[in-house]
Write a structure and sequence with these properties.
Shape: globular
Largest sheet: 4 strands, antiparallel
Helix content: 25-40%
Order of helices and strands: HHEEEEH
Structural class: alpha+beta
Distance between the termini: 37 Å
Strand order of the largest sheet: 1-2-3-4
Number of helices: 3
Radius of gyration: 18 Å
Number of strands: 4
Strand content: 15-25%
Amino acid sequence: MSVETATATGEDTGTATSTASSTSVASAVTSPLPTAPYSVVWSGGHPYVREGDEGRTRWVGLDDRGRPLSLTDADLLRRGWSRTQRS
């Protein structure tokens, strides 16, 4: 039975679910960081705001102790990020 047939009839094959979840994970990882000024992203349970001019942009937020923390795009990509707060 094909995945399309199983989905149309409401049967759970397990294959469709794992394929769909891996696709959503891959698109979340490869999606580019927002470039608009004052965009907000979440990383490690903390919000970070994009600040700065064209040549020197940073993501600014607070660390676990409430101290200011400035991250580059590469830092944020390495740490992982999302557009919404994960619970």
